[in-house]
Design brief:
Radius of gyration: 28 Å
Largest sheet: 4 strands, parallel
Shape: elongated
Number of helices: 16
Strand order of the largest sheet: 4-3-9-10
Structural class: alpha/beta
Helix content: 40-55%
Number of strands: 15
Strand content: 5-15%
Length: about 475
RNA sequence: GGCGGCAUAGCCAAGUGGUAAGGCAGAGGUCUGCAAAACCUCCAUCCUCCGGUUCAAAUCCGGAUGCCGCCUCCA
């Protein structure tokens, strides 16, 4: 497959270092708060990448770490009057709960920073030995950026350019403003570990260098776009300065979730947690919404766009339900069948796979899935063709494709009737609908209809519509749903 | 200020040299007591603007404008 590499700023053929095997390391969360949509997107992007690589018969080892000791966690613990370990554990658990609900597969390894303290210290010592880092009187250890000539190769910045904007916080003892902390001496009340430089704790960047070390060289290192600088740049510097090897061949970065064209972030306070969303929408709707755009593009989150996603999603499941009904029949006729329809179905199945091979283009892939839906629907409505063996073959292919969409995208894999019922319940809850009251009106309407009193029947239908309820009259009786 | 990204119909969104996927909304039609749902059909001579390269550009190059991100913690 082709994959965009942030390092070269180009789409490249993805070829694993070891044939048939892929190591992926993705920067996970710092466990100090609930995850928001942005975290969901990042997790989803790499979830689909891993699924797709596995479907391409590659043996994937997927690592996603947790940062469980950090300034923010310590601050949060202090604010909540809790132990920092408890804070970290709480939010790691929440991460798992949220991601499980979204159908994000668990990583093969989920290292925690606090389990790698020894490795981080070893890495510091190695860099010190090689004169690529220095310890200060107060017990901090800094990386010497000037000792790594390639510094800036990922973010496209040169140390000289960075120099102008760099600053030194009060109390820091850096030799150079660009240098960054590998190890921080502990302040009173903070968690600490014994070290050759006194009591202290690791800097953020060194954590990932230590946790990814067992898997070098990585085929793919991933994370959000905002991690490129300084986090990933520093990670490269640490790892490559210490081991004289390549940290990762491909750097893959996902774009942001935005709100009103602005980045969703903690600092702007414009974030929506995954939990907030799942109170209003089904997990699969969020998945669909996020995967309907290319992973590197920004995505604007809003209720309106989620509602729109829901409508498209409903259409797909309706079609799936209809196809299942059609397939349950057993009276297929050997009629002449237009070969271009069959060829089109075959082409669309292939196009779906090709889209994912092209830099994980889930948006394009989904476009092909819906084009296939269109083809199937038209067949379903064709009174003659729908009973033909040619149509049956296309229906079967459609069903098989849906299985593929489920395997790789985690979409459209539910039992249609079950999903549709869940979706309806979800919309009823969201609309704050009094189901009992609706049923009462429907009973009165059914009575009016028995009496062929259409004026009364229509008045009741208008009354319901005013409450946001849409009624349909079907051969099986009245059906209702939330309007829109 | 430095570095980077994006600009496609009312909206969302694919498309990286060969003449604009898909979705939502909308219009007309079939169906219906009337509706709704479903299905069918239609809906960008054109891809922010100005130059250039080419037989050929939304796609490549140069410039302009607008928006966004990173440079401090951030998926």
């Amino acid at each position: 497959m082709k994959l965009y590499n942030s390092l070269t700023r180009a789409k490249e053929d993805f070829i694993p270092v070891t044939p048939g095997k892929v190591n992926i390391y993705v920067c996970g969360i710092t466990a100090y708060d609930l995850c928001h949509v942005g975290h969901a997107r990042s997790a989803l992007v790499f979830d689909v990448l891993v699924r797709h690589l596995r479907r391409s018969n590659l043996e994937v080892f997927f690592v996603r770490n947790f940062t469980d000791v950090d300034d923010k966690i310590i601050k949060r613990a202090h604010d909540d009057g809790r132990d920092w370990r408890e804070v970290a554990e709480t939010y790691m658990r929440c991460f798992h709960e949220d991601m499980d609900r979204l159908g994000v597969l668990r990583a093969d390894a989920e290292p925690k920073a606090t389990d790698f303290i020894k490795e981080m210290q070893d890495l510091c010592e190695r860099l010190l030995r090689e004169n690529k880092a220095y310890a200060t009187a107060s017990g901090d250890v800094y990386f010497k950026v000037r000792a790594f000539p390639e510094y800036g190769k990922l973010s496209g910045r040169s140390p000289d350019e960075l120099r102008a904007g760099a600053r030194v916080a009060p109390g820091e003892e850096k030799h150079d403003p660009l240098d960054f902390a590998l190890w921080k001496s502990a302040k009173p009340g903070e968690p600490f570990w014994e070290s050759p430089w006194g009591k202290g704790r690791p800097g953020w960047h060194i954590e990932c260098s230590a946790m990814s070390a067992p898997y070098l060289p990585l085929d793919i290192h991933g994370g959000g776009l905002d991690l490129i600088f300084p986090h990933h740049e520093n990670e490269i510097a640490q790892t490559e300065a210490a081991c004289a090897c390549t940290l990762a061949r491909f750097w893959v970065h996902n774009g942001f979730v935005q709100v009103n064209a602005e980045k969703m972030s903690k600092s702007l306070g414009n974030f929506t947690t995954i939990r907030d969303i799942l109170e209003r929408y089904l997990p699969e709707t969020l998945r669909f919404f996020l995967l309907a755009k290319h992973y590197r593009s920004p995505v604007d989150y809003s209720f309106d766009s989620m509602d729109e996603t829901e409508r498209a999603q409903r259409r797909m499941y309706h079609a799936l339900a209809e196809v299942d009904v059609a397939l349950a029949r057993d009276a297929w006729k050997a009629l002449p069948f237009p070969s271009d329809r069959s060829a089109e179905a075959e082409r669309l199945e292939d196009a779906f796979a090709r889209a994912l091979d092209d830099d994980l283009n889930t948006a394009s892939a989904l476009g092909h899935a819906f084009a296939f839906l269109k083809l199937v629907k038209s067949l379903l409505d064709d009174k003659k063709l729908r009973n033909s063996e040619g149509a049956r073959d296309i229906f079967l292919r459609f069903r098989r494709c849906a299985g593929e969409w489920h395997d790789v995208l985690g979409l459209f894999g539910a039992e249609p009737a079950v999903f549709l019922a869940e979706l309806r319940n979800c919309r009823i809850t969201r609309g704050n609908i009094d189901t009992a009251a609706v049923e009462t009106i429907l009973e009165r309407r059914a009575a009016a209809r028995r009496d062929k009193d259409f004026a009364a029947s229509d008045a009741l239908r208008d009354e319901l519509f005013a409450k946001g309820i849409e009624v349909r009259d079907t051969p099986q009786g009245q059906e209702w749903d939330i309007a829109g």
